[in-house]
Amino acid sequence: WLKFERTLTTSGFLLRAPVSAMSDERKAFSREEVAKHKDEKDCWISMYGLVFNLTDDLLIEHPGGPDVVVSMAGQDATQDFEDIGHGDTAREWANKYIIGYLEDADESAKTKVIPTVRESTSRGSSDGSTTALMVVVPVIVLIAAFGFYKFASAR
């Protein structure tokens, strides 16, 4: 099993990563360098300002097959990773493939890992629209139920 370390980021998110992924020896890569590694024999991607080498195990073990991974090779795959809905297990698993960070990423990329599902969704809904829906929908349902009750009891 991998030994996990917990890190509290500046944004207040608690992240878990294999200790090897938390190395202070991460290397900085340019986007151009990442773009050179774009096939099955040499497959790198970037996500969340981090650089991942997915050439070996992940191409074989990825549930979606190697074609899915290779189609994103050499590119930023953050949005695709989120759109698929990867769970925390996949996020922790991916952390072991971190080899560095993008040169133009913020300073925290040197030690950060992929955010958990809860963290990534809480960042995405920071406008409060989800919270508003959680209040408005039940209120509408209660009003409709009360109206139906009054209508039915009037007959």
How is this structure best described in words?
The chain is an alpha+beta fold and 155 residues long. It has 2 domains: 4-124, Flavocytochrome B2, Chain A, domain 1 (Roll), CATH 3.10.120; 127-155. It contains 7 helices and 7 strands. The chain has helices at 31-35, 57-61, 66-71, 78-84, 88-95, 117-124, 129-154; strands at residues 4-8, 14-18, 27-29, 38-39, 42-47, 50-53, 98-102. It has a 5-stranded mixed sheet with strand order 3-7-6-5-4. A hairpin with a 2-residue loop joins β5 (42-47) and β6. The chain starts with a strand and ends with a helix. Mean pLDDT is 77; it is low at 1-23 and 123-127. GO terms for molecular function: heme binding; metal ion binding. Residues 26-103 form the Cytochrome b5 heme-binding domain. Belongs to the cytochrome b5 family. This is Cytochrome b5 heme-binding domain-containing protein. The chain crosses the membrane at residues 132-152.
